Amino acid sequence: MDLTALLFRTPWLVAGVVVLATFRVLSLLALRPWGMELNLGHLVSFVWDVLLAAGLFGLGRVFELASVGRKALRIALRALLVALVLGAALARCADVAYCFLTGGHWSSAGFLYASPDNVGLLRDGNGPVLVGCMIGGVVLLLAALFMDARALASRVPSGTKSRRVLQAFSLVALVVPLLVGFNDIEEATARFVPESLFVHEWLAWRGILGSESSSITLKPDVMSRFVKLGLAPEKPLFAGYPLSRATLDPTPFPYPQTPNAALGRPNLVFTLVEQLNHEFIYSFSGELRGVMPELTNLSRRMTMVTDYQSTANPTIHALIASLCSLHAASHYRDINLGQGGDVLTHTPFVCLPKVLKDLGYRTVFIQGGKKEFASKADILSAHGFEEIHGRPELEARFPGQDISRWGMHDDVLVNYAQQQIKRLEKLREKDGRPFFVMMLTLDTHSPGLAPPECAMPGSLLRITADGDSRDMIRSLHCTDASLGRLGRFILDDRTRSKRTVWAVTGDHPTSAMKFVRDIHQRYGESYTGWSGRMPLLIYDPTHQLPARVPVLSSHIDLAPTLLHILGIRDAPNSMTGFSIFGRRPQLPMLIGRVGPKYVALYLPNHQTRSMTMGMLGQLCASKQPIFEKEPKAMSACDLQRWVRWQNVLWSDKRLFPAGK
After folding, report:
1. What mean pLDDT is predicted for residues 197-210?
2. Contact (CB, 8 A) for 7 and 54
3. CA–CA separation, 436 vs 387, rounded Å?
4. Residue 617 pLDDT more than 50?
5. Which residues does 652 contact at the CB level (< 8 Å), separation at least 6?
């Protein structure tokens, strides 16, 4: 019996290939609303699936044909194969589910959805597809495996060439995918086998895979360069904690105070808008007139920061960067997420709400989603928020409202926030304590989650004929209407407008929608994805701020900027950013990070380079500059050293000493 007869004697191998290919097609369909474009890598991924299926079934035949005398050992070998196939099928299904939910492939982020409280997110809108994929896929693979082995009635002598070739092929086809899953390039290109990345990320989640480096100490010449670039203080406040600082940005505030400054420390409201691109507000970009007219009008009454960059993604990373002025950890477990049932809520670092709370502010966080999602409640309460309001509180106050897959809609969020602000204002009248309220919106999450009753003006239909893009535009327009109400609530009230600092920006941009890509293609630009620009609007009644501030800045500068406005200087901290009105304009560059795989460097005049760590390593090894025209800002090797150094500071909890 030759090798061809061994591999193709029955149709069950073909059935297995069809099952794996179905998983792959579902993954690609799930990515379509996020702007996925087919390329050669996707074709390669289908070929990879064929090899994987052939390897599984070939290995099954090896076990079936093996001259094993002991029944127990034969059963054990078959059981191992069944477990392998079952595990691969389950991992593939999890990958498809994660694709439908987020538009990305399975990574450490997928573990955010393991909590029973979040299972509904995986099922929402895709129940038949996901359940059918999970049950049907596993059953078909197992059935095909057993039927194929059963159909092979004859045995092949152990010494034949076909037998040896089949054994070698089967092992290679199964081992190589696991090895491929352990590098940066695989995740960044074709995403050949989600089950391999699943193994890698699970090991990282459990802490079995550690950091690339083992030291928090850098060579003096490297540390000197980092200090000059503003990446570390010259003299840390605490030995062994290189990011610890004695004070915040010490630069005198450059703009004169208004009479309102005499009223005492102002209240602070911060609105973080889901996926708010620079392009969406006409006053910032000159594009998409009418999509967000309320924010465009509000920008005439506020200060526009026009070169504000996204340096973090997803939302949980943006929260850490915006509130704590830190590039988030390389792995989610280091941020505080649950690991083995233990939520690491006391990872020491200093955040905006903690600084304000220590100075007497009431601190309140409000969102429309579940507080437990991504362990936000644990993270936020551990770092300074006294009150955390989420979907249960909003639903109790406004029963019977439509609810999206992520939670209460933004119009309900704004109504609830206005009630809370009024409550806090009354409390301040009694005891004099100012307050900090942060709001996180939801409806502009791709592919657009506006409530059904929210209508899009017919004039906006001209922007695009793409259905997914129109859903997003409708959501942007409806969230904008809610933000307009919030703006008038703050700015049109004579008393409130004198005593409230308000900041509005996005958590991260979206590169998913066709209408966004069309804008950049018109200008001959390639979209920078997560490392794109976002709008930042600041209303400060206590200073005479200019209308526009063209300062290269980012998430990590927001907390220092707001504290600078409030006149707060003396607060030991671990923040790595600087005030937009202070030292930030003097620094030549910014760094962005997304998990363990991606890094970006930003220079003035909208120069941005984002890359995987694998690509960065290649630049370092070949001594190539990150930017051809600006090679002196930071070398690729220095950026690689910085990333590894940051990873160690997080994993060893060397950001700020506990109890200080």
Report:
1. 59
2. yes
3. 11
4. yes
5. 216
Taking CA atoms, 591 is separated from 531, 588, 649, in Å, by: 10, 11, 16
At 320, list the tokens: 């850490």
Is the pLDDT confidence value at 7 over 50? no
The strand pair at 362-367 and 387-389 is best described as parallel
Half-sphere exposure of 391 (CA within 13 A, CB side): 19
Mean pLDDT of 449-465: 92
Q: At which residue do the structure tokens 């030291």 appear?
A: 215
Taking alpha carbons only, the member of 578, 413, 442 closest to residue 507 is 442
Peptide bond into 447 cis (omega under 30): yes
Least Cα distance to 108 among 213, 203, 208 occurs for 203
Average pLDDT (236-243) is: 94
**What is the distance between the alpha carbons of residues 364 and 358, in angstroms, rounded to a whole number?**
14
The arithmetic mean of pLDDT across residues 407-424, rounded, is: 97
Distance CA 654, CA 237 (A): 12
Domain ranges of the chain: 3-205, 220-651
Q: How far is CA 103 from CA 118, 188, 317, 646, 652, in A?
A: 17, 14, 17, 28, 32
Which of 14-18, 55-59, 157-161, 455-459 has the least mean pLDDT? 157-161
Cβ–Cβ under 8 Å, residues 364 and 390: no
Phi, psi angle pair for 636, to nearest 5°: -60, -40
The amino acid sitting at 644 is: R
Q: Tokens in use for 625?
A: 């500059």
Which of 126, 93, 89, 130 is closest to 110 using CA atoms?
A: 93
Where is average pLDDT lowest: 274-278, 564-568, 619-623? Answer: 619-623
pLDDT tier at 154, thresholds 50, 70, 90: very low
Q: Is the pLDDT of residue 123 over 60?
A: no
Phi, psi of 260 (to 5 degrees): -65, -20
**Which pLDDT score, from 0 to 100, does residue 223 have?**
94
pTM summary value: 0.82
The β-bridge partners of 387 are 364
Q: How many CB atoms lie within 10 A of CB 609?
A: 21
Host H or E run for residue 515? helix 514-522
DSSP 207-271: T-S--S---SPPPHHHHHHHHHTTSS-SS-SBTTBTT-BSSS--PPPSSPBPGGGGG-SPEEEEE
Q: What is the pLDDT of residue 217?
A: 85
Decide if 23 contacts 137 (C-beta within 8 A).
yes
Please name the residue that has the structure tokens 């990373």.
Answer: 317
Q: Residues for the chain: how many in total? A: 660
Determine the residue type at 494: R
Quote the percentage of the chain above a pLDDT of 90.
48
Q: Is the pLDDT of residue 411 over 90?
A: yes
Question: Which residues have C-beta within 8 Å of that of residue 385, sequence separation ≥ 6?
Answer: 353, 363, 364, 365, 438
Task: Pull the structure tokens for residue 257.
Answer: 């105070």
And the tokens for 470? 């129109």
pLDDT recorded at residue 59:
56
- Asked if residues 408 and 401 have their Cβ atoms less than 8 Å apart, the reply is yes
Mean pLDDT over 411-422 rounds to: 98
- Three-class SS string for 589-619? CEEEEECCCEEEEEECCCEEEEEEHHHHHHH
CATH 3.40.720.10 fits 220-651, yes or no: yes
Buried b (16+ CB within 10 A) or exposed e, 135-163: eebbebbeebbeebbeebeeebeeeeebb
**Amino acid letter, 143:** A
Lowest-pLDDT range, 49-58, 141-150, 314-323, 451-460? 141-150
Q: Measured over all CA atoms, what is the biggest interatomic distance in the chain, rounded to whole angstroms?
A: 95
